[in-house]
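Entry — protein

Goal — fold tokens:
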Amino acid sequence: MTKQAEALARLIIGIIGNVFSALLFIAPVTTFWRIIKNKSTEEFHPYPYIMTVMNCLCWIFYGLPIVHPDSTLVVTINSFGLFMEIVYLTIFFVYTKNKYRMSIVLFLLAEAALIGIIATITILCFHNTDTRSMFVGIICDIFGIIMYASPLTVMYRIWKTKSVEYLPFWLCLAGFCNGICWFTYGFLKKFDPYIVTGNGIGGLFGFIQLSVYFYYTHMAKGNNAPVQTEMQPKYTPKDLPKV
């Protein structure tokens, strides 16, 4: 494959990756529409969205010319993702319990401080784009893997209730497609081990989440039980008895 063909393939896969990443960031819309409609976050957790904020911040910094040149697509899509996650967390903050509100504020403050520390160390201690890319890339991989794995925080509840109501299907599907696409992108033109590693593991986590979703959905059908998904809640706050 010629250099021009490799560059074109990288551009095309990057654009497709941006589409899947946008779907990943848009996927929670159905969950948050349910939260707004019911005026309650029910048993949903804010942690996937908190971790995605940190993931986006790291990748935006990674894609800057002073760290990893020629990464415009990485910056643009993660900037969009950061905006969406802030919107989601704002909605979550309004409708959730007080304990989660405090967690959201503390986590976001910690993430802001952490990205500031990472940026300072990167600029002061590393003096070329190769070493900066390595340092920031490893950090991006760590938080990317945490982000991809975060929907699994409800695994105990799924195992206990045999219900996938609080495992967002579209988030899992978009995470799987996003991971596979960016995994491919990392091999084109110039091998990028940091994009390959984080997104390869992310695609695997997405596959595991989808497998769990379909397993419990199939099991519920096999038992002739109603299949509970995030779009079919067992109850709403209006159904609860008044005391």
Observations:
- Confidence is low (pLDDT under 50) at residues 231-243.
- The CA atoms of residues 14 and 57 lie 19 Å apart.
- The two ends are 70 Å apart (CA to CA).
- The chain has nine helices and no strands.
